[in-house]
User: Fold these one by one.
Assistant:
Number 1:
Amino acid sequence: MTQKPASRIVHINGWPGTGKLTIGRLLAKKLGARLIDNHMLLNPAEALFARSNPLHASPREQVRRAVFDHAVRADPAESFVFTDALADDEHDRAMFSWYPDLAAARGADLVAVLLDCAPEENARRLVSPGRSEALKLTDPARLQQLRATYKLLRGLPEHTVEIDTTKLSPEETAARILAQIGV
């Protein structure tokens, strides 16, 4: 009897515009996983309140909690690919802690992926068509400020797959991730 591969939780972290969603789609397809893009979790709050509004945090937290509560109860063989833009600060480390908890509750392997690219390439990608309609960051000055102020969170410090996407296609990046995780 062949053993079915363990389910996975793949967490892709990176700056806005590094290709998280595109790469996440490719990984989800290859792994037969469900994709949960960070904008699925953010956009309900974005539709209601500006990020500067204190009320923004409440629906964002409620949507996130509901998704994670239901993901725990999904078919145990089901894998998930999540995207995020988390900084290495106390708040975002606490948000990342949901992923190891989810993996443990599901008996799944957790794979942390960190995507980055050169700042000039990142700014170029940030203004790609369709980003503003998806309520994604499109302001290069804001991106520059984020990059200058924050450092990206390495989800699992001892073994995070780190990839510079500057000169890679989404397909090449996904292939590198899959090779790193043994798929």
Number 2:
Amino acid sequence: MPDTTTPSVLFVCVHNAGRSQMAAAFLTHLAGDRVQVRSAGSAPAATVNPAVVEAMAEVGIDIAAEVPKVLTVEAVQASDVVITMGCGDTCPVFPGKRYLDWELPDPAGQGVAAVRPIRDEIEQRIRDLLDEITPANRT
């Protein structure tokens, strides 16, 4: 029987190759099985941005095997919280879902030095989100 008390979060950006991949990786890393994590893009890239992979490896999180995924209605419907990062109005909106829009610079075409501050801001936002959606499980 599935645990319906486990919150689920979907991270969406255009290419699902940078910001949403970092956010999903941080939440998975920090929350473990306390949160269901998904990420997707409205126009997925072929691969995850190599500078993003390198920046995440610097903090001990390996996302080299991740693959950009297409945003589906089902992914939105299955999520309690949908966090967009530049997908604009391409993200379907459903009643009962919580929507957040995180304005973050796009790491596309940037080197690892430019990705690091984006990574660090995402990590802080993920820590804040985790405290908010799993208050009973604070460590």
Number 3:
Amino acid sequence: MATYSAQTDESALALLGRRMAAFRIRSNWTQAQLAEQAGVSKGTIERIERGDSVQVINLIKVLRVCGMLETFLAVFPDDSPSPMQILQMGKVKARKRVRSPRNNESDASAVTEKPGKYTASDTAPKAKRKHNTPWVWDEDK
């Protein structure tokens, strides 16, 4: 269902342009200064102030310099729940610990025996060890 306003699109653009021009003048900026700060052409500022159509990205650049971008963005407020609201709704699952994969005997046999170093049987879990010998290092000899 369409809603109608007494204001036309063209009159809304003209009003926006007049208000932006008044703001610029109150701030003691020339069109060239505002254009340079915003990174747009002077012609873009002229078009905005005349009420002509401009690219939205250029309007955003000018609004940012004028300190009005947040006000512009507030026209359509963010309606997604905040992180705190999500937590309160109980929709966030508790994080689980990350587990390392279990050691397989094939992994343990991949370790080669070196004199004075640990052996493959020492790297296996205690339940799978063939004998309970302590680790042997070169310094322990």
Number 4:
Amino acid sequence: MTDTSQRGAMCDASVIVARDADGMVAVLTAEFPRHGGEYVFLPGGRQEDGETPEECARRELREEAGVTAQTWRHLGSYAITLNSAARIHLFLAEALTLGPQQLTPSEADFKLMWWPMPDAIRAATEGRFLLPGGPLALLLAEQVTVGGRRAPSEGPATDG
């Protein structure tokens, strides 16, 4: 959630579900006193000048989680508000390589954890996310196939 000099201007943003080979998801937590406490969120933030949504996603994942990914899947783009043309771009990142976080001073209290996907989705259903992009990205990521997982077009999973 990189803070930019365009704080007042609405610009596009990217949010990333980084899922490792064991199905664990990169989740961040931090205190947001203005909103009443600690919240959960996924890596992501605003696009910088000249960045594409995927370039933004790659940078934010590297900075906030210290993660790079070989496999990227665009999960969709959605309006941030009805009163703005700004969009939020959601991505699934897999085939991960871990490294150090590169947090800015405004992100210094971000804590990185790895949660099973069902725990992250449960946090979303319990209202523990401050912003809606993370829960939407988790739900969409849960529905796509990367590395042998079920795709929505395949219908219900069976034990055949």
